[in-house]
Structure of S-(Hydroxymethyl)mycothiol dehydrogenase:
Amino acid sequence: MSWTVKGVVALAEKKPAELVDIVIPDPGPNDVVVDIEATGVCHTDLAYRDGGINDEFPFLLGHESAGRVSAIGEDVTHVEIGDYVVLNWRAVCGECRACKKGVQQYCFDTHNASKPMTLTDGTELTAALGIGSFSEKTLVHEGQCTKVSEDAPAEVAGLLGCGVMAGIGAAINTGQVQRGESLAVIGLGGVGCAAIAGAKLAGATTIIGLDVDEKKLAAAEELGATHTLCTKDLSPQQVAEKVQELTGGFGADVVVDAVGIPQTYETAFYARDLAGRVVLVGVPRPGVEITLPMLDVFGRGGALKSSWYGDCLPERDFPYLTDLFLQGRLPLDRFVTGRTDLAGTDAALDGLHDGANLRTVVEVAK
């Protein structure tokens, strides 16, 4: 059987996303239908809507979600009907060279559903990040479903599906922040603030939040920053000097760039300690380049890393972080600063431009 449900679709580049009827097909052998309960509004969906990812319109937007399994394919063993799950876009294959080397976080052939969802006229939809969850139901591969505790509300658990996981993972998995180390984060949106929360969880003792918007500093402090600084009128070198002042004159052990532009990356590069780690988690726009003196690259040592999805493994990290939230050790609920319904999704995407919310969550009525 198939299901006709409501979903938020970007039909053309830079046009408002529309709430329309979409068709969820009968699941293939390893596919799963999930009834969506809540989905976070992420910059990636804005990029899909506005043509910043590719031109494979129409897009079924949404990917940062939690919900409940309502139908499964004949060969599904990973989940059962009724399971409460967080969706992920890293369903590892287990067979590619990365998986066989034991670095599944770099899997080159992640799984997605075997069938497309469509508009009612049969037009195939491209699901954002292989998920497409600004909808009442979606179709994914079974490996894209990670079971977590039902005690965690969907609007909280779903945030682990992308941005919050990216930030926490940038600090813990990629940056490998250790107890007693220092960390600076450039860009205090949802991802940057999640990196701060991750550093606090890991035991960092000096945690510095940096942003050009002074209004964002309070959220960083609430989530664990020991120092914050508005960098609006400062050069990259001046910001680096401020970080050095706050870390005994040395620079931070780890600097996370959650923006991804040349100015912030240059700041991150010079704000770290000798042999420190730079982690780029902010996604750069195509064509953007950076120039650094090779002697400085050689002379400072350390590591320059990129963090894809916080180098997470959903089956390992989602249940663990959910349990930490339930224990009161990870304040995931503080990231939910706005709520709307499916009809308000496009306005929430536009709202990302002003950065007023760490995360707006789209709640699906039952």
